[in-house]
Amino acid sequence: MDIAHRATDQQTPAEQRRRELLEAADRVVLRDGPKASMNAIAAEAGITKPILYRHFGDKGGLYRALATRHTDALLASLRASLDAPADRRRRVEATLDTYLASIEAMPQVYRFLMHPAEEPHQTEQGFDVGRHSAPLLRRMGEELGQVIAERVDLGPAAEARARIWGTASSA
Questions:
Q1: How far apart are CA 159 and CA 165, in angstroms?
Q2: Would you give per-residue pLDDT tens digits along the chain (171 residues)?
Q3: What CA–CA distance (Å, rounded) separates 52 from 28?
Q4: Where are the alpha helices (DSSP H) in 33-106?
Q5: From CA 112, how far away is CA 115, in angstroms rounded?
Q6: Which residue segments constitute the domains of the chain, with CATH numbers given?
Q7: How many C-beta atoms surround the C-beta of residue 71 within 10 A?
Q8: For residues 16 and 31, what is the distance between their CA atoms, to the nearest angstrom?
Q9: Would you say 144 and 74 are in contact if contact means Cβ atoms under 8 Å apart?
């Protein structure tokens, strides 16, 4: 049995259901991007919208769960790029390539997480994308800065430089 199956076997039914709902949301987001609606996600999952709200509270809760899921995966990839056996410049280039490749591979996910669907900063039911994407960008910048500080020798004032690089990379 592989690690993914063991992790799934150890999940509670609620955790497993939440994971299944996030997978359904991912399918809709990959198809519809920023126009993904709670109705479409509920239909994809084969449930009613109130059940979706029960698991995530509101669209903001679902958005945060998807953002966490995708940010965690991206940060793992970025860490692997920074850990590659190469000189500093090549590792930084590989990390930037990894970041851009993740956007290229799933542009609809990037658009969903970073851009509004219709009007500036608004989507279904007054959902404010900007309000929800700011913490995502801040978290990604902070964690990427920490990863850079741990893995790349930036010389004097390394910690401050790492924070700047992390923030600039996630903007």
A1: 10
A2: 444 445 556 779 989 999 999 999 999 999 998 888 999 999 999 999 999 999 999 888 898 898 888 888 888 888 888 888 888 788 878 888 888 898 899 898 888 877 755 444 344 454 455 555 666 667 777 777 777 777 777 778 878 777 777 766 555
A3: 14
A4: 38-45, 49-56, 59-83, 88-105
A5: 6
A6: 3-170 (1.10.357.10)
A7: 18
A8: 23
A9: no
Cα–Cα nearest to 40, from 56, 27, 53: 27
The token pair that represents 69 in the structure block: 């899921």
Give the position of tokens 């978290």.
Answer: 139
| Helices and strands, number each (H, E), in the chain | 9, 0
Tokens for 86, please give them: 């190469």
Closest to 111 in 3D by CA, of 72, 139, 70, 73: 70
- Rounded CA-CA distance 100/103 in Å is 5
Q: Take residue 53 and report the two structure tokens written for it.
A: 């709200």
What pLDDT score was predicted for residue 134?
64
Q: What is the pLDDT of residue 43?
A: 96
The phi, psi pair for 90, rounded to 5°, reads -65, -35
